[in-house]
Design brief:
Helix content is 88%, strand content 0%. By secondary structure, the protein is mostly helical. It has 2 domains: 95 residues; 65 residues.
Protein backbone atom coordinates (compact mmCIF):
# COMPACT_ATOMS: atom_id res chain seq x y z
CA UNK A 1 0.00 0.00 0.00
CA UNK A 2 1.39 3.37 -0.92
CA UNK A 3 2.21 6.02 1.65
CA UNK A 4 -0.55 8.28 0.33
CA UNK A 5 -3.20 5.61 0.86
CA UNK A 6 -2.05 5.03 4.43
CA UNK A 7 -2.20 8.75 5.21
CA UNK A 8 -5.65 9.12 3.68
CA UNK A 9 -6.94 6.10 5.61
CA UNK A 10 -5.60 7.57 8.87
CA UNK A 11 -7.18 10.93 8.11
CA UNK A 12 -10.46 9.20 7.25
CA UNK A 13 -10.39 7.29 10.55
CA UNK A 14 -9.73 10.53 12.45
CA UNK A 15 -12.58 12.27 10.63
CA UNK A 16 -15.04 9.49 11.44
CA UNK A 17 -13.90 9.44 15.08
CA UNK A 18 -14.22 13.23 15.33
CA UNK A 19 -17.69 13.08 13.79
CA UNK A 20 -18.83 10.46 16.33
CA UNK A 21 -17.42 12.55 19.17
CA UNK A 22 -19.27 15.62 17.91
CA UNK A 23 -22.50 13.59 17.70
CA UNK A 24 -22.06 12.48 21.33
CA UNK A 25 -21.48 16.09 22.41
CA UNK A 26 -24.51 17.14 20.39
CA UNK A 27 -26.67 14.51 22.08
CA UNK A 28 -25.43 15.61 25.52
CA UNK A 29 -26.22 19.24 24.70
CA UNK A 30 -29.75 18.29 23.62
CA UNK A 31 -30.24 16.39 26.89
CA UNK A 32 -28.93 19.40 28.85
CA UNK A 33 -31.42 21.69 27.12
CA UNK A 34 -34.26 19.26 27.88
CA UNK A 35 -33.33 19.16 31.57
CA UNK A 36 -32.99 22.95 31.72
CA UNK A 37 -36.42 23.36 30.12
CA UNK A 38 -37.91 20.97 32.69
CA UNK A 39 -36.40 23.07 35.48
CA UNK A 40 -37.79 26.18 33.86
CA UNK A 41 -41.29 24.69 33.65
CA UNK A 42 -41.57 23.63 37.31
CA UNK A 43 -43.32 26.07 39.61
CA UNK A 44 -41.12 27.83 42.15
CA UNK A 45 -42.73 29.54 45.13
CA UNK A 46 -39.51 31.35 46.02
CA UNK A 47 -39.20 35.11 45.50
CA UNK A 48 -35.94 34.65 43.61
CA UNK A 49 -37.71 32.68 40.87
CA UNK A 50 -37.37 35.53 38.34
CA UNK A 51 -33.58 35.58 38.73
CA UNK A 52 -33.30 31.81 38.51
CA UNK A 53 -35.63 31.81 35.48
CA UNK A 54 -33.39 34.33 33.73
CA UNK A 55 -30.35 32.26 34.63
CA UNK A 56 -31.96 29.11 33.20
CA UNK A 57 -33.02 30.95 30.06
CA UNK A 58 -29.46 32.21 29.63
CA UNK A 59 -28.10 28.66 30.02
CA UNK A 60 -30.61 27.39 27.44
CA UNK A 61 -29.49 30.03 24.94
CA UNK A 62 -25.86 29.10 25.54
CA UNK A 63 -26.66 25.44 24.94
CA UNK A 64 -28.54 26.31 21.76
CA UNK A 65 -25.51 28.24 20.50
CA UNK A 66 -23.31 25.29 21.41
CA UNK A 67 -25.63 22.97 19.50
CA UNK A 68 -25.43 25.24 16.45
CA UNK A 69 -21.62 25.10 16.62
CA UNK A 70 -21.71 21.30 16.95
CA UNK A 71 -24.06 21.07 13.96
CA UNK A 72 -21.67 23.17 11.88
CA UNK A 73 -18.73 21.03 13.00
CA UNK A 74 -20.64 17.86 12.18
CA UNK A 75 -21.43 19.10 8.68
CA UNK A 76 -17.80 20.10 8.18
CA UNK A 77 -16.59 16.67 9.35
CA UNK A 78 -19.12 15.00 7.08
CA UNK A 79 -17.82 16.97 4.09
CA UNK A 80 -14.24 16.12 5.04
CA UNK A 81 -15.15 12.45 5.31
CA UNK A 82 -16.71 12.48 1.83
CA UNK A 83 -13.65 14.20 0.36
CA UNK A 84 -11.31 11.70 2.00
CA UNK A 85 -13.41 8.77 0.76
CA UNK A 86 -13.28 10.17 -2.76
CA UNK A 87 -9.51 10.67 -2.48
CA UNK A 88 -9.04 7.12 -1.19
CA UNK A 89 -11.17 5.77 -4.02
CA UNK A 90 -9.08 7.66 -6.60
CA UNK A 91 -5.86 6.36 -5.04
CA UNK A 92 -7.08 2.76 -4.86
CA UNK A 93 -8.43 2.73 -8.41
CA UNK A 94 -5.74 4.92 -9.98
CA UNK A 95 -8.22 7.51 -11.15
CA UNK A 96 -6.58 10.61 -12.51
CA UNK A 97 -8.08 13.94 -11.65
CA UNK A 98 -8.10 16.69 -14.21
CA UNK A 99 -6.34 19.78 -12.92
CA UNK A 100 -8.29 22.86 -12.01
CA UNK A 101 -8.48 25.37 -14.86
CA UNK A 102 -6.16 28.32 -14.66
CA UNK A 103 -7.48 31.85 -14.56
CA UNK A 104 -6.25 32.41 -18.12
CA UNK A 105 -8.23 29.36 -19.26
CA UNK A 106 -11.34 30.67 -17.56
CA UNK A 107 -10.94 34.06 -19.23
CA UNK A 108 -10.36 32.32 -22.56
CA UNK A 109 -13.47 30.26 -21.97
CA UNK A 110 -15.44 33.41 -21.25
CA UNK A 111 -14.20 34.91 -24.50
CA UNK A 112 -15.22 31.75 -26.37
CA UNK A 113 -18.68 31.86 -24.80
CA UNK A 114 -19.03 35.54 -25.72
CA UNK A 115 -17.97 34.79 -29.29
CA UNK A 116 -20.43 31.90 -29.56
CA UNK A 117 -23.25 34.03 -28.13
CA UNK A 118 -22.39 36.70 -30.70
CA UNK A 119 -22.74 34.13 -33.46
CA UNK A 120 -26.09 32.98 -32.11
CA UNK A 121 -27.33 36.56 -31.90
CA UNK A 122 -26.20 37.21 -35.49
CA UNK A 123 -28.02 34.11 -36.70
CA UNK A 124 -31.16 35.11 -34.85
CA UNK A 125 -30.94 38.64 -36.29
CA UNK A 126 -30.51 37.27 -39.81
CA UNK A 127 -33.45 34.95 -39.36
CA UNK A 128 -35.57 37.82 -38.09
CA UNK A 129 -34.55 40.04 -40.99
CA UNK A 130 -35.17 37.31 -43.52
CA UNK A 131 -38.56 36.68 -41.92
CA UNK A 132 -39.35 40.40 -42.32
CA UNK A 133 -38.11 40.26 -45.90
CA UNK A 134 -40.23 37.17 -46.53
CA UNK A 135 -43.23 38.91 -45.02
CA UNK A 136 -42.63 41.96 -47.21
CA UNK A 137 -42.26 39.76 -50.31
CA UNK A 138 -45.42 37.86 -49.39
CA UNK A 139 -47.30 41.11 -48.80
CA UNK A 140 -46.10 42.42 -52.16
CA UNK A 141 -47.04 39.16 -53.89
CA UNK A 142 -50.45 39.14 -52.20
CA UNK A 143 -51.01 42.76 -53.20
CA UNK A 144 -50.04 41.98 -56.78
CA UNK A 145 -52.28 38.90 -56.77
CA UNK A 146 -55.17 40.96 -55.41
CA UNK A 147 -54.57 43.61 -58.08
CA UNK A 148 -54.53 40.94 -60.79
CA UNK A 149 -57.72 39.36 -59.39
CA UNK A 150 -59.38 42.79 -59.30
CA UNK A 151 -58.32 43.43 -62.90
CA UNK A 152 -59.53 39.96 -63.92
CA UNK A 153 -62.92 40.46 -62.27
CA UNK A 154 -63.19 43.89 -63.93
CA UNK A 155 -62.43 42.26 -67.31
CA UNK A 156 -65.04 39.56 -66.66
CA UNK A 157 -67.63 42.20 -65.83
CA UNK A 158 -66.82 44.20 -68.92
CA UNK A 159 -66.93 41.03 -71.03
CA UNK A 160 -70.26 40.08 -69.53
CA UNK A 161 -71.50 43.61 -70.24
CA UNK A 162 -70.30 43.43 -73.85
CA UNK A 163 -72.05 40.12 -74.35
CA UNK A 164 -75.26 41.50 -72.92
CA UNK A 165 -75.16 44.42 -75.31
Amino acid sequence: MSEDKIQVRKALLEAVTAQKLIEKKLEAAHKEIASLKKLLERPEPEPSSAASEQNLTKKIRQQELLIAEFEADRLSQNDLEKQLQATLFRLEHSVKVTPQPKIDDINGTRATIDRMEGKVFKQEARAELSAKDNAQHKLKADTEAAAIEDELSALKKSLAKDQDD
